[in-house]
Structure formats: structure tokens, C-alpha cells
Amino acid sequence: MTKRMKKFSALRRKRIAGPILVVAALFTIGTAFGVASALPSAQQVTSSSTSPLVSQGKALFLRGCSSCHGLNAEGGTIAPSLIGVGAAAVDFQVGTGRMPMADMSQQAMQKTPLYTPAETAALAAYVASLAPGPASVTNENLNWQRDGNVANGGQLFRTNCAMCHNFAGQGGALTNGKYAPSLMGVQPKYVYEAMVTGPQSMPKFTDATITPQEKLDIISWLQSANHEQNQGGASLGRVGPFTEGLVAWTLAIGLLIGVSVWLALKAK
Hints:
Blueprint: H1 2-12, H2 17-38, H3 42-50, H4 52-64, H5 66-69, H6 86-95, H7 117-130, H8 144-147, H9 150-160, H10 162-165, E1 172-173, E2 179-180, H11 188-197, H12 212-226, H13 241-267
Antiparallel strand pairs: 1-2
């Protein structure tokens, strides 16, 4: 013991010992502070766990979602983790009827929602309580009619969205049997939540990529396009010149065949 103490005292007298001890102390204090800051406070945990909405959402989750997403929303072999996706992702997926779905290997399609709006809000609150993530929005909170710029929204849409959703928002085909759905008739809040969460094949547009104001501009343009009248007659799906050419070609060929048959009959 005496030899060890003498050896330790000799090390302390060296010049490099002081800086090493200071660095070690600063590292220890910084690490402890970081861990303490990352942990939620007891008050936050208590309020989250005792919230009636969160408790209701947890019960709904365990009954209808845990078989795929895990008992603690940690994900599994057939479904991803929901920790950190936020309330916006749940409100979009469940509110549009895309979730729950029976076959996770295929693209989720919009259908009649299985859960009521109140149950969807409870599920979103429970998932939001697990970790920070994008918050859900409501149609009333999105003042796209007042704050949206239709012209700028159209330009942003053509730059960022038209390659998948078609220049008129009618949707389009993607690779591997997937597709970008039509955006006509979609509620503004679901368009906003899709942009901030990036469901399925869609990229996530953060506020650094497309600002909240620009998102309102895109929504404003989509709503304008959705209610735009077809001044030239039938819209033919608004998918561009392909359908127009197909109709013109079919009518022209049909007309030529009819004229040919008429001339042949008349020649007899």
C-alpha cells in the first residue's frame, strides 16, 4: 500500500498530471450534465403517463397496433418504429385510413378510416408522448386562404412535387408498382402533415427545405386547382397531352375507317 501511495504521489508531482486531471474532470462533468439534460423530469413523466388522452391512446394502441409496431411502439419485422414520428404521422396515416392495414408489404391506400377523429387524436397523443416529433395540425389552424400565395405555390409544386404527383396534382406511377396518389380533394391538414412526415415513398420536407409559409402556398395552389373549372370542356383526367392525343387519334382513326367503309359500300 505504501509503495502504491508513493508511486501515486510521484505521478502527481509531474507537470502533465495537472492538465490531465482538469481535462478528466471537465469531461466527467460534461458527460453527467448531458445525461441529466436528456432524461425527462419526473414531472414530465408523471403528467404524460397520467394524461387521460394518452392513456386512452395507449389502450387503443395496445389493442389495434401493437401486433405490428410492438408493445412499446419499438417496431418489428413487418412494421417500423413509431418512436419520434410525432403526432402528425399518426394523424395522417390513421386519419386517411391508410393505417391499420393488413398487408404491410404493399403501399398503403387511402380508405375509410377505422378510428373516429377522437380515437385518432388519442393515438396521436400517445405516440407523441413517446418522443419529440412533428405535431399534428388542423384545417382551422392552417390559414391558407388568407396567408397562401397561389402563384408561388404553383411554382413550388412544379419544382418539388410535380415529378411524382403530376403537374396538375392528379398523381402518377412510381417504380416497383408504387404510385403517388392524387391530391385532388385531400384536406389541407393532410397535405401539410404529409410534407412534414414524408409517408412511404414521399420525401420529408423540413422547414429548412420548404418553409411553413411555402407549405401554405402549396396548399393554396392545390385548393385552387381542385376547384378550378374546365373552361375548355372535358378535363380528360388533367394528365397532360397523352389522353388528349389518345382521344384525338381514336376519333380520327374511327372516322377514317367509317369513311373507308362508306366509300367501299358506295362503289358497289
